[in-house]
Design goal:
- The chain is of the alpha/beta class.
- The chain has a domain of 148 residues: Nucleotidyltransferase, domain 5 (2-Layer Sandwich).
- The protein is 36% helix and 25% strand.
- The chain contains eleven helices and 14 strands.
- The protein has a six-stranded mixed sheet with strand order 3-2-1-4-7-6, with helices on one face. Strands 12-11-10-13-14 form a five-stranded mixed sheet, sandwiched between helices.
- Helix 4 packs across helix 11.
- The longest helix is centred in the C-terminal third of the chain and has 14 residues.
- The radius of gyration is 21 Å and the shape is globular.
- The protein starts with a strand and ends in a 7-residue tail after the last helix.
């Protein structure tokens, strides 16, 4: 297949570029720990040129479409959010461009904002592409959890991102096990399914800030082995995440297969039907959908 365009996921800590065919096949990939935090504002064109230089030498200057935090205030250019409900067409109609060293322009897809079920404002950059990609796979309404540092519980309805809410599951886990008394003076940690499920049940039943300290007290009372504390904390957080109501009969977990395992155990415990869909597959299908709208071919 012929290389025709480049899809880029440029986040806070990582840069990922995918060499794409017109048919939406990924022909090659470049990944570097060169996220926005390591790039000065005026250096984006040069850094981008360096990161994809081997493709430029081989294929010339291909059309480029980018998504993620590259369109944030800290990114290459701030791209305003599109308000939900938002479709692929809505995002394609709000693409912004930046100048490349080659003289061509790269396109940046906007993120999506909404007011969640609690009346609070929400924002996402990058996950909207995965949701569009998932819609290409599911072909109908769905409820998805895009798990990670900041998990997104999202609803797709009538061809649009309808609403979503953010749960800081991944970041809270990191803070609790690395920077709180709950994670202090622990031996090497081992995953224990029963301990994890104990956490899931408690986290789903009670307010989170009322039960977090039990990770310490259960250890002191020898009800949880001190090598299983991380598993228990993970269970508390994931169980709490499931207190967000599921309007549909099935959940889709979007992310890597490895990271999905704990979510899968919790869903199986609650007898909730689910499928795990690869996050990169969703991202590339979503970017291909945006690319197919033709907006990024206008150089």
């Amino acid at each position: 297949m012929k290389a025709s365009w480049i899809a880029v996921d440029w986040g806070t800590t990582n840069f990922r570029a995918f060499l794409m065919s017109d048919e939406g096949e990924c022909l090659d990939k470049i990944q570097q720990a060169k996220g926005l935090l390591s790039v000065k504002q005026e250096q984006f064109p040069q850094v981008f040129d360096e990161l994809i230089s081997r493709w430029s030498k081989t294929y010339g200057h291909l059309p480029v479409i980018m998504a993620g935090m590259v369109g944030s205030q800290q990114g290459w250019r701030e791209v305003p959010y599109v308000h939900a409900p938002a479709s692929a067409n809505d995002l394609a109609n709000h693409i912004h461009s930046v100048d490349l060293l080659s003289g061509n322009k790269a396109k940046i897809v906007s993120g999506v904002c909404c007011i969640n079920d609690f009346g609070n404002p929400e924002v996402m950059r990058g996950e909207e592409i995965q949701l569009i990609g998932l819609s290409e796979i599911i072909k109908g309404d769905f409820h998805a959890i895009l798990f990670g540092t900041h998990s997104k519980n999202a609803y797709w309805h009538n061809g649009k991102i309808e609403s979503y809410s953010t749960v800081m599951t991944g970041e809270l886990y990191s803070i609790l096990v690395n920077h709180s008394i709950l994670g202090k003076s622990l031996p090497e940690q081992k995953f224990n399914k029963d301990t994890f499920i104990k956490g899931v049940e408690i986290g789903a039943k009670y307010p989170l800030n009322h039960v977090l300290f039990s990770a310490r007290t259960f250890k002191l009372y020898d009800e949880i082995h001190n090598s299983n504390i991380h598993a228990y904390i993970s269970g508390l957080l994931i169980g709490h995440e499931f207190t967000i109501s599921n309007r549909l009969n099935k959940l889709y977990l979007v992310g890597s297969q490895n990271l999905a395992s704990n979510y899968a155990l919790a869903l199986e415990h609650f007898n909730i039907e689910f499928d795990v869909i690869d996050g990169d597959e969703c991202f590339l299908k979503g970017m291909t959908k945006i690319y197919s709208k033709g907006e990024i071919n206008e150089y």
